[in-house]
């Protein structure tokens, strides 16, 4: 950063834009809009059209990653000159919402007595970047919401006004970029941050891979499609693994172990990275509720007493900046996949969801997901501590999780107890090696110790000592044979404190690293470190054993019923009645 370098108030940023019409493929299952419309930078136009058409001709049609809503970035104080070259056979325009401009020349409409600023040729618009934030632009030559118009086919984008002096770079290559949904933003005097642009849009005109309107196989009824940034992952495409209802539940239908990554762009970061989500409603039909798990932001980012929220209702053409509190992973520094979605469940079901993937180890571009998909590099933010490199016992999320591609994901270790109070699933050695220091059965990979998170621990007065004292306390208890190594199953018994009864652990020793055979280890040994902690914690806890039951549920004497009623009962009630 250079001191005393104030931004010029007269800087002019120029962009030349085109509108192109191509089929937009919304997911790997081949759902597509045959009449997709998008704004592109002139220099990218030919490449995007060529590659998008090439992938559209595959069987089934496949998406092209550069087909995405156009996002431009400028600095506060810039004058923005947009040269719009319309080569399509219809009048089009670019109308920006929220930036200052002269309505006589740059409104992008044909309204009232104002000069017509739509075009069937070439026109220049001038906008003034007088406010930081994110601003939608879209076509106002045809403002209808019908399928003959432009909006439902994707003709919108956004301009982000960054702080004075800020610069933006590609998160994978570090190169300066002129457009893109994702960027790393470096700004004078403040921490760098990950910037993610997320467009919600809805009621799309979509055909399936065979060119037919999509049908939900569960109901036989036509199925709508809702999207994030020209991609959609509707549940209708994620076929159940079997006829067992247990194989079509929420934990299966959104599992990347079973189906791979969802289609909408996945946000990526290292735990702790500062992050802003630029949320845009590009559509013009329905209101949505953006809901992000495990993270929060203030309704008014610059107001320190503003309400803290984790969901926000967004109406057509609104935009918000979500300045994520405490950065990626929030205060408890969670790693892994965090879902975000429209909280109106039909929209969620119709495809409006994706993930924020939070890494624990450096991704240098050589890694692969368990299904073999390459993991693109993610450059660490330069003003933050570099993430640690991977090693055999720390292969980076999700490669330490015990799972098999295409199979039902197993339950998290230590999460569910059997009738004797022992965990149904014990961690594999590889999983346990990646637990946080103060792992608890409900928080294995996220640090919930107040000393590390809020600094407000009631036990140690926030001095950060309670974890140490906990360890000492444990050490003072009679420890079950503190055998650090068993000899024949190194290195895992550096992790386990005791090995006398953990035979299942020895088998995968020879194989582990790829985690393929790790499921063999989850035959409950009942003797891992976490199991013992659970037993200790259970001493002062009243436990309820609750069964989730699926059975016919009759609602009235006329026989109205739900053949697949689902409800909770106490286990003893179930036993008292002799089952269902
Ligand atoms: Cu919605």
What report would you give on this structure?
- Helices cover 11% and strands 25% of the residues.
- The protein is α+β, with helices and mostly antiparallel strands.
- The chain has three domains: 12-359, Cupredoxins -  blue copper proteins (Immunoglobulin-like, Sandwich), CATH 2.60.40; 429-538, no CATH class; 546-576, no CATH class.
- The strands form six sheets. Strands 10, 11, 12, 13, 15 and 20 form a six-stranded mixed beta sheet that branches.
- Bound molecules: copper (II) ion (CU).
What is this entry, summarized?
The protein is an alpha+beta fold and 580 residues long. It contains ten helices and 24 strands.
General shape = globular
The CATH topology name of the largest domain reads Immunoglobulin-like
| Strand tally | 24
| N/C terminus separation | 70 Å
Percent of residues in helical segments?
10-25%
Give me the Rg, rounded.
27 Å
Small molecules held by this entry: copper (II) ion
Number of helices: 10
- The secondary-structure class comes to alpha+beta
Task: Tell me about the largest β-sheet.
Answer: 6 strands, mixed
* Poorly predicted spans: 462-527, 534-538
The CATH class of the largest domain is identified as: Mainly Beta
How would you state the average pLDDT, rounded?
A: 85
Let me know the CATH homologous superfamily of the largest domain. Answer: Cupredoxins -  blue copper proteins
């Amino acid at each position: 950063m250079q001191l005393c370098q104030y931004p010029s108030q007269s800087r002019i940023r120029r962009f030349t834009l085109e509108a192109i019409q191509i089929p937009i493929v919304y997911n790997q299952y081949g759902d597509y809009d045959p009449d997709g419309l998008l704004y592109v930078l002139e220099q990218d136009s030919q490449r995007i059209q060529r590659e998008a058409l090439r992938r559209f001709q595959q069987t089934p049609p496949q998406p092209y990653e550069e087909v995405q809503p156009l996002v431009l970035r400028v600095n506060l104080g810039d004058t923005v000159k947009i040269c719009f070259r319309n080569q399509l056979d219809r009048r089009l325009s670019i109308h920006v919402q929220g930036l200052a401009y002269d309505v006589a020349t740059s409104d992008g409409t044909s309204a009232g007595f104002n000069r017509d600023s739509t075009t069937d040729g070439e026109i220049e618009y001038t906008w003034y970047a007088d406010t930081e934030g994110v601003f939608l632009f879209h076509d106002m030559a045809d403002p209808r919401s019908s399928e003959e118009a432009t909006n439902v086919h994707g003709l919108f984008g956004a301009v982000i006004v960054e702080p004075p002096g800020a610069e933006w770079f590609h998160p994978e290559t570090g190169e300066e970029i002129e457009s893109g949904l994702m960027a790393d933003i470096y700004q004078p005097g403040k921490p760098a941050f990950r910037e993610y642009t997320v467009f919600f849009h809805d009621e799309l005109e979509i055909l399936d891979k065979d060119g037919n309107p999509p049908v939900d196989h569960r109901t036989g009824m036509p199925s709508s499609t809702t999207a994030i940034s020209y991609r959609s992952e509707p549940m209708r495409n994620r076929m159940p693994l079997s006829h067992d209802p247990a194989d079509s539940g929420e934990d299966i239908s959104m599992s990347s172990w079973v189906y791979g990554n969802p289609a909408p762009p996945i946000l990526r970061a290292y735990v702790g990275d500062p992050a802003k989500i630029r949320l845009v409603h590009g559509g013009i039909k329905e209101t949505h509720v953006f809901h992000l798990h495990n993270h929060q932001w203030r309704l008014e980012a610059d107001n320190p007493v503003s309400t803290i929220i984790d969901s926000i209702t967004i109406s057509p053409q609104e935009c918000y900046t979500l300045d994520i509190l405490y950065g990626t992973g929030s205060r408890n520094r969670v790693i892994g996949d965090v879902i975000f979605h429209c909280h109106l469940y039909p929209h969620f079901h119709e495809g409006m969801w994706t993930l924020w993937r939070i890494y624990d180890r450096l991704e240098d571009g050589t890694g692969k997901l368990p299904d073999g998909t390459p993991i693109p590099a993610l450059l660490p933010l330069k003003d933050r501590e570099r993430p640690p490199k991977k090693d055999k016992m720390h292969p980076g999320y999700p490669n330490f999780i015990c799972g098999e591609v295409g199979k039902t994901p197993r339950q998290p270790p230590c999460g569910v107890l059997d009738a004797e109070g022992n965990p149904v699933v014990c961690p594999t050695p590889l999983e346990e090696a990646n637990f946080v220091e103060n792992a608890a059965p409900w928080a294995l990979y996220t640090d919930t110790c107040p000393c590390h998170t809020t600094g407000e621990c009631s036990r140690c007065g926030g001095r950060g000592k309670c974890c140490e004292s906990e360890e000492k306390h444990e050490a003072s208890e009679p420890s079950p044979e503190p055998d650090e190594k068993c000899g024949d199953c190194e290195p895992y018994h550096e992790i386990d404190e005791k090995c006398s009864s953990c035979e299942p652990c020895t088998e995968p020793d020879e194989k582990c690293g790829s985690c393929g055979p790790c499921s063999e280890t989850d035959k409950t040994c009942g003797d891992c470190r976490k199991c013992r902690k659970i037993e200790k914690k259970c001493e002062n806890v009243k436990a309820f054993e609750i069964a989730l039951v699926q059975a016919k549920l009759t609602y009235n004497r006329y026989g109205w019923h739900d053949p697949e009623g689902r409800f909770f009962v106490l286990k003893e009630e179930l036993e008292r009645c002799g089952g269902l």
